[in-house]
Amino acid sequence: MERIRIGPEQRLFVLTGAGVSAESGLKTFRDQDGLWEGSRVEDVATPEAWARDAARVWRFYSQRRREARKAEPNAAHRALADMEQALGERFFLCTQNVDDLHERAGSRRLVHMHGELFASRCEFSGAGMGAFACSRGPFQDDSLYETEAAIARCACGGRIRPHIVWFGEMPLKMNRIEREIAQSTTMLVVGTSGAVYPAANFVHWAGAHVRRIYIGPEEPGNADAFSEIVLGKAGEVLPGLVDVD
Which residues are annotated as catalytic? Predict the structure, then answer.
């Protein structure tokens, strides 16, 4: 495809999805043999699942931590880190992925809208807890918790849960994401299905002047919203794609 030129007054917003991590060998939600195979979403990725069987939930995410530790950043992760290095504050990355491959490739101006696999928090932290709210925020954590007895406890007495946005919970950092979209002149969406909301709406939130480009092996569900569709692996398309003035 034609290279993307980012002028001195222009800003790039990037959204990445599971397809980018898949190129590093991490299974995706929608793979036929994917991450959730053998485990219903209702059993491992909802607040109700946590209330019903926290040990099962933690076994699931402990296994995900094991798999993510073995994975390495691929060419797509490195290409995005290079874009950030060239653009500085004119670059912003929002990822739907919970692994740390973007950070390990060198990305710093990013948010994980669905949480972080290698972070945990008190089950009583966050909005909506009322009088039971705990002030302890998320913290880095790569421990494995595979039995009820192994689950760590907060100082307030609450159990430590994965810092993951489960189905039925609100994505993180939405105010900042909306601000960055509003400021962008080019939007690059990479490796997403276009079926998970609100991320699938980001392309619709971009201004009419914004160049909207999708990159992935298959067309996303929201393909009609893009000005350009590039079918291919992110690791093959992204390196050298952006020119910075």
Answer: 114
* In contact, 214 and 228? CB cutoff 8 Å: yes
Domain residue ranges of the chain, discontinuous segments joined by +: 1-26+72-114+171-245, 27-70+120-164
Taking only Cα atoms into account, the Rg of the chain, rounded to an integer number of angstroms, comes to: 18
- The values of phi and psi at residue 28, to 5°, are -110, 160
> CA triplet 108, 72, 223: central angle to 5 degrees?
70
User: What kind of fold does domain 1-26+72-114+171-245 have according to CATH?
Assistant: Rossmann fold (3.40.50)
- What pLDDT, on a 0 to 100 scale, did the predictor assign at position 30? 55
Tens-digit pLDDT profile for residues 211-231: 999 999 999 999 999 999 999
Query: Do the beta carbons of residue 80 and residue 14 sit within 8 Å?
Result: yes
Taking the C-alpha atoms of residue 55 and residue 237, their distance in angstroms, rounded to an integer, is: 41
**pTM of structure:** 0.93
- Topology given in CATH for the domain delimited by 27-70+120-164: SIR2/SIRT2 'Small Domain' (3.30.1600)
* Rounded-to-integer distance, Cα 79 and Cα 169, Å: 31
How many residues are present in the chain?
A: 245
Tokens of 144: 């494995």
Helix (H, G, I), strand (E, B) or coil at 181: helix
Rounded Cα–Cα distance for residues 26 and 126 (Å): 29
